[in-house]
Amino acid sequence: METAKECENDTYLETVCLLSKLSGAKNTIDVKVDMDEMDVTSAETKATYEEIKAYVLEHTGLQVSNLYIAQAKRECGIIERENYNKAKSEDSRHPKCPEEKKEAILEALKHFVMI
User: Environment class of residue 106 by beta-carbon count within 10 Å: exposed (0-12), middle (13-18) or buried (19+)?
Assistant: First the structure.
């Protein structure tokens, strides 16, 4: 399936394909993709939570939690995988990230080219 998208003055072509293990297939095509030649997007070079914590601590002296990082990423539209360690009740309350910590996390996300 291919779709064309326009972003400002550029047009991008997206191709979606299904890759699966074909045991016993008679007709196969071998494709070699050299990752060094591919453009890497910011989503593919994501920093880990530990790297973000270390950056924030080193540059601001603040310690931030995974919860605060997740809240800041969600505000920026960075979609994360589903958390399997969810609270049992639907109306559980979480502490809100303080503004100074949120700013420090956003600076780290900018440093790691995630936003």
Answer: middle
63/53 Cα distance (integer angstroms): 7
The Cα–Cα gap between 57 and 63 comes to 6
Q: Helix, strand or coil for residue 3? A: strand
Q: Which residues contact 106 (CB under 8 A, 6 or more apart)?
A: 72, 76, 115
Residue 76's alpha-carbon distances to 53, 71, 72, 80, 110, in angstroms, are 17, 9, 6, 11, 11
The CA R_g of the chain, rounded to the nearest whole Å, is: 20
pLDDT tier at 42, thresholds 50, 70, 90: very low
C-alpha to C-alpha distance for 71 and 61, rounded to whole angstroms: 20
